[in-house]
Amino acid sequence: MMKKRVLIGLIATLGALSSCGAGKDRQVVNLFNWTYFIPDQVLYDFRDETGIHVQLDTYDGNDTMYAKLLSGNANYDVVVPSGDFVSLMIEQNMLQPLNKELLPNFRHFDPMILTYITFDPGNIYSVPYALGATGININTGKVSEFDASWRIFEREDLSRRMTLMNDTRDVIGGALKYLGYSANSTNPDEINQARDHIIRYWKPNILKFDAEMFGKDFATGNTWIAQGFPEVVMKELEGSDAFKNHHFVLPREGGLIYLDNMAILADAPHPDLAHQLINYILRLDVHAFIMDEFWYPTLMPEAESLRRVAVPYSIEGLFANNYEFRENVGDAVTYYTQAWNVIMQSK
């Protein structure tokens, strides 16, 4: 999915989890997950409750995960791909169907969310883990008047105080939505229109395309407007007086929703243990704890009362603002890559 995750300090490391209680009869489940995407406390508690140890390996992007699995050197049970990669992995028979009888906590999901999942209808091969979205972070101490629209990047008075993500699909997707098209368009003419709009109207006003430092730049006051994940900015601002000036908006034209999902690999060595881990993570209190760590909206209505933090947007707000789940665009990825190269090379 994104992805530069929030460093939360509570990170499960391979060595820490694999060294505890070593023994030849020890039960181990192998988890392949995004970097900084599950608190170590969750995995330690799972171990303490079940006796099953979690061997964690991490990746920083879907492409990295996918390449590792294709190499044939992986020995993982559970993997956490984004929706567009779930569909790709299903097509290539890389995932095994889930046994819902072993996942009783699946019942806690909001049925509305499940109906929007087109990459795995019926959740045959995957279950949601976390949902996130990019939008526009605004420093209201510097920008008091603004419109909740992608049009903000056309404001010359904010020139050099704004950043866009260094992400092909997020930026072009935003321009596609602004122009009235789907963020998952596979039409080369529409994609090129979005390309030209970015070059002509947005790029002249931004400081840079950035998916790594946008949170720090915003927190230090170097920028006042930043496209990106709000939790990244909130983590940088946490504990500072500037936190009160952070405002996050979902552009009314829409954008992309990222849904990361838990799945079991077709050749998983421990499928029963994998089901146990997934079902544990789907427990209401565990789900609420994980979502709190990342300021993500909950996917389970019953977990809402267990939460400790307020989130910057709701799932209902995403759909009300014309957001779409990011989908696998197939061969059309070439059009996006070509358009992005032109954007990057333009003056």
TrEMBL record:
The keyword Cell membrane does not apply. PANTHER family: SPERMIDINE/PUTRESCINE-BINDING PERIPLASMIC PROTEIN, SPERMIDINE_PUTRESCINE-BINDING PERIPLASMIC PROTEIN. SUPFAM superfamilies: Periplasmic binding protein-like II (SSF53850). It comes from the Bacteria. Pfam families: SBP_bac_8. One of its GO terms (biological process) is polyamine transport. This is Extracellular solute-binding protein. It is found in: Periplasm. The lineage of its organism: Bacteria, Pseudomonadati, Spirochaetota, Spirochaetia, Spirochaetales. GO terms for molecular function: polyamine binding. Residues 1-21 form the signal peptide. The keyword 4Fe-4S does not apply. One of its GO terms (cellular component) is periplasmic space. Keywords: Periplasm, Signal, Transport. Gene3D superfamilies: Periplasmic binding protein-like II.
